[in-house]
Specification:
Number of helices: 18
Radius of gyration: 24 Å
Distance between the termini: 52 Å
Helix content: 25-40%
Structural class: alpha/beta
CATH topology of the largest domain: Rossmann fold
Strand order of the largest sheet: 2-1-5-3-4
Number of strands: 18
CATH architecture of the largest domain: 3-Layer(aba) Sandwich
Largest sheet: 5 strands, mixed
CATH class of the largest domain: Alpha Beta
Number of domains: 3
């Protein structure tokens, strides 16, 4: 159909919302409650435009044929400003993060509060996620992401009128309900009312303590996202600059979690084959995501037997740093402080699990690392590329792709085929489990047996996959959309294409790697020769494996 948009005649798809139409025509319409993958509820009413002289919400309104749309009249700006004032009695843009609301403040000219602050909530302090309802505008994005995208339903609206607020169910503290700590609520909060539990202060104190030997280990997805915090395009690989920045922050050594991923594959591929050959519980489900682990422990107790017992890569490497590396370097393990740089808020709570016997002392999200680099006045963009410290810094492309949905499974299959047949796969790229489709599947033949596998990303997709789990032998689940590249600790993004660009960067790093299979890693071979013996050995079980438990939902 044809409409008039700000005085210009344009042809549009009548099935799309006015918000989408405006964006397609290069017109910015502000919004706080809109989420691209969820049906619009038009709660914030900041996206007001005029259609044939009537104010309507652009996110939830479709055009009429011949309609006249205006997006920038004085009436519209005044209405947007009033709605902002009613929601945000105390405008503030003091946080380091690029909050969506700050741009809208500028656009509508909101400078100071007109209406009194009537809130007075105490911040809800969790092990990974912190909520402050005093900053909340009740836009509902966190509620809907938790329910519709993640399938967790940990938070919802309570009360009515001026007492309406968002809270964990039954007004329990967040730490006491079935929150999986994924941090997707943080990524989707436009006003900074939800943040991660920061470990920066503890890390800075350790770096300043001359008696401590502080080591950083960097997750694979960090290299595809950190640059965004310093003005670089999404998907820019900044591996070398990240290493250089950490050294300038004062870390004694900088190791690559991809090595831990390679060791995870050695253990996990062996565990899968053992289950297949000896009639173990199938399907086996991978364990690299602590958000999914919590979801399983809260909602799917019967799947505990299906879970691989392997620790996540940074937990494996943390243990090896305080055992293998400490002995090789002649350092007292008690002096070593291990700091994991993770895309994930759930890793913070993972490292506190007693049964994990963790070697990790602190977890910094990608955003926290960005803040630390800025605190140290480091010009990130100008840094030279540097290499990881070789003692535990050699990795493969298989370790890199752990950062993307389907990557853990693909890496495991590359090695499982070698272990099962003694031959290398000719084509080691599994295109059927790549991409952003919610649930993906495929198959491979090992020792004459057809092994069916599937993967899912996002909690709601995980629920869909679990309903049909008996069709498969091997399953990978990542709690966050896109996998770790879309983790709750990553730079906050608005363009949905950002996840695709980060994923492409991950696979580019894999293709450019000299070694692309975990069992080819010479450092991994040396660690098994000198310490672990072989995958699933008694020593490997002691250091690299864990257990899970049933958890109450409240």
């Amino acid at each position: 159909m044809k409409i008039t948009l700000n005085g210009k005649s344009v042809e549009v798809d009548g099935g799309k919302s006015l918000l989408d139409i405006c964006r397609e025509n290069g017109i910015t319409v502000p919004t706080l409650c809109y989420h691209a993958s969820i049906f619009p509820e038009a709660r914030c009413r900041v996206c007001l435009v005029e259609m044939d002289g009537k104010l309507v919400t652009a996110c939830s309104t479709k055009p009429r044929d011949g309609a006249s749309i205006v997006t920038n009249s004085e009436r519209i700006v005044k209405a947007r400003k009033l709605n902002m004032e009613l929601m945000m009695p105390e405008p503030s843009c003091k946080r380091v993060d690029d909050l969506e609301v700050c741009e809208i403040y500028s656009e509508v000219g909101m400078r100071k509060a007109r209406f009194p602050q009537i809130k007075g909530y105490k911040p809800d302090l969790g092990a990974a996620v912190v909520r402050d309802d005093n900053k909340c505008i009740n836009c509902g994005r966190c509620v809907r992401v938790c329910a519709d995208v993640q399938g967790v339903f940990a938070i919802d609206f309570a009360s009515r009128a001026h007492n309406e607020h968002i809270t964990p169910y039954w007004e329990h503290p967040l730490a006491d309900v079935a929150c999986i700590r994924c941090g997707q609520c943080i990524l989707n909060c436009p006003v900074g009312a939800i943040t991660e539990c920061s470990h920066i202060e503890g890390v800075v104190a350790a770096l300043n303590d001359k008696d401590k030997y502080v080591v950083a280990q960097v997750a694979p997805s960090i290299r595809a996202a950190l640059g965004e915090l310093f003005g670089m395009p999404a998907g820019t690989l900044v591996t070398g600059k990240t290493v250089a920045a950490l050294r300038r922050c004062g870390f004694e050594k900088v190791f690559d979690v991809d090595l831990g991923a390679d060791i995870t594959i050695m253990e996990e591929a062996s565990e899968l084959l053992r289950r297949v050959e000896k009639g173990g519980v199938l399907p086996m489900i991978t364990t690299c995501c602590p958000g999914w682990i919590l979801m399983m422990e809260f909602f799917y107790h019967d799947l505990i037997r299906n879970m691989s017992t392997c620790k996540s890569p940074h937990e494996m490497l943390g243990m090896l740093i305080k055992t293998y590396y400490a002995k090789k370097a002649g350092i007292d393990p008690k002096k070593i402080v291990v700091v994991s740089i993770m895309p994930c808020t759930a890793k913070k709570s993972e490292s506190t699990r007693p049964e994990m016997k963790s070697g990790v002392d602190y977890v910094l999200t990608t955003r926290e690392l960005g803040k630390l680099i800025k605190m140290k006045n480091i010009d990130f963009a100008s840094l030279p590329d540097e290499e990881f410290d070789p003692a535990l810094g050699v990795s493969t492309g298989a370790g890199v792709i752990f950062g993307a949905t389907g990557g853990v499974m693909e890496a495991a299959l590359r090695t499982a085929h070698k272990f099962a047949t003694g031959r290398e796969l000719k084509n080691i790229e599994f295109s059927e489990i790549r991409g952003m489709k919610g649930v993906k599947e495929g198959s491979i033949t090992l020792k004459g047996k057809k092994i069916r596998f599937a993967c899912a990303h996002g909690g709601a997709n995980a629920r869909r996959l679990i309903e049909q789990k008996d069709k498969y032998h091997f399953i990978e689940i990542m709690a966050c959309p896109g996998g770790c590249i879309g983790g709750g600790g990553q730079p906050i993004y608005r363009d949905p294409d950002t996840l695709r660009k980060r994923t492409e960067a991950i696979y580019t790093a894999d293709r450019s790697s000299k070694l692309r299979r975990s069992h080819e890693n010479p450092v991994v071979e040396r660690i098994y020769e000198e310490m672990l013996g072989k995958p699933l050995s008694k020593k490997a079980e002691e250091l690299l494996h864990t257990r899970y438990m049933k958890r109450s939902r409240f």
